[in-house]
Amino acid sequence: MMARLIVAAVGIAVLLPVVFLCPLWVFAIFIGAICALCVREFLRCAAPELPLRMRIVGMVFAGIVPFAGAFGGHNAVTAAAIMLSLLYLAAEVVLSFQREEPFSLQGILAYVFSVAFIPFMLGALVRVGTAGEWFRARLLLPFLIAFTCDSGAYFVGIAFGKHKLTPKLSPNKSLEGYIGGFLTGIVCALLYGVVLHLCGVEVRFVVLMIYGFLGSFACELGDLFFSAVKRLCDVKDFGHLIPGHNGVMDRFDSLVFVAPLVEVLLLWVPAIL
């Protein structure tokens, strides 16, 4: 518990200056590094048979995708980075047959998922900040919803958890924790709106409440989805790099779904003007 709290405090101390003080490209490098580490952990668990060179190249491409988003926004720059990673995979698959050591279908799909899907989804954390006067306020929003929902589910589950949510998938998760995380995400999104309003930002509170509602749902669904992936890979955790939080993928799994959801909502129904 103490290790979890200390790491969380250090993470907040790093995240806030990067979001509010640094140029967007620095934030993009930060997210790119996270994506690269996520790919490393995911491929280690889901496709251990892939050669080291493929994992390294995959990590490089995963780091490029969010960085490209900082300059390309929603245009072809991000798509080009993903396409190059898939062309590299296609070449490796063809050559593997030439070497008479073809990759498994699971390994190929795991590579596509980790190198293309995960960085594109997490790249939304960067893309939400490519336009607008209050882009820094928007940059923090996906983190706030995902992490407060996660924390609420964890602490409420410890204090009040009695009914198992998905015992065959994740026996430690409770229905009470799920509800607690859901409510925490909504309340904290609204409190964030109050802070922004006091700072002179125009906020649509009803829309922001919808962000919290949908974001909390996406957060907990993402957490359960990656729990299922770990079950399929027969591993308990993706890694052990972060004390109290296991691996980087374990810590950021919920953001894989929350970040693009918030990106779409900000484009279609902006809550922060």
Descriptive key words:
single chain, 273 residues, two-stranded antiparallel sheet, 11 helices
Protein architecture, described:
This protein has 11 helices and 2 strands. It is mainly α and 273 residues long. It has one domain. Strand 1 (164-166) and strand 2 form a beta hairpin.
Q: Beta-strand level of the residues, as a percent range? A: under 5%
Number of helices in the DSSP assignment: 11
Silhouette:
globular
Instruction: Work out the number of β strands.
Output: 2
Could you say how many structural domains there are in total? 1
Biggest pleated-sheet summary: 2 strands, antiparallel
| Residue windows where pLDDT falls under 50 for at least 5 positions | none
Distance, first to last CA:
38 Å
Lateral strand order in the biggest sheet: 1-2
Secondary structural class: mainly alpha
Order of helices and strands: HHHHHHHEEHHHH
At a glance:
The chain is mainly alpha-helical and 273 residues long. Helices cover 75% and strands 3% of the residues.
Explain the layout of strands and helices.
Elements (H helix, E strand, L loop, with lengths): L1 H19 L3 H23 L5 H21 L3 H23 L6 H18 L1 H4 L7 H26 L3 E3 L3 E5 H24 L6 H29 L14 H5 L2 H14 L5
Antiparallel strand pairs: 1-2
Helix pairs in contact: 2-3, 2-5, 3-4, 3-5, 4-5, 5-11, 7-8, 7-9, 7-11, 8-9, 9-11
